[in-house]
Amino acid sequence: xxxxxxxxxxxxxxxxxxxxxxxxxxxxxxxxxxxxxxxxxxxxxxxxxxxxxxxxxxxxxxxxxxxxxxxxxxxxxxxxxxxxxxxxxxxxxxxxxxxxxxxxxxxxxxxxxxxxxxxxxxxxxxxxxxxxxxxxxxxxxxxxxxxxxxxxxxxxxxxxxx
Length: 162
Hints:
The protein contains six helices and eight strands. By secondary structure, the protein is α/β, with parallel strands linked by helices. The strands form three sheets. Strands 2-1-5-8 form a four-stranded parallel β-sheet, with helices on both faces. Strands 3-4 form a two-stranded antiparallel ribbon. A two-stranded antiparallel ribbon has the order 6-7. It is globular and about 45 Å long.
């Protein structure tokens, strides 16, 4: 049975930067009941507390953080790149351990966003980009979806298991 890496906040765990959560979503609850879900909050796994100051990547490009060309900065200007990279490494370890090929991560997160992210100005401006963990997973060949793409994630899972 194919396992799926899922952002903990989407399972209703209060791990978001503001101490909140999202979900739980019916589809995720079904996958949990089937024993498919491997849950992770990369930011918490990387050592950041909950709650924590909001963080963004200038230009929204997590791959450039992995390459050491950009930083993840908090609204206060603190560089939290090391924690974000450590969280991505935790995600990759789980992918290897459970042979995970699909991840369902929180949209627009500086860790987990898979299609767009905030631009680093803390003004709500969105840009095409991905978070640090999403970039690391994509580089490892994992298909990354957000909670806004649950039907596509379900279809990818069915295709993998066909």
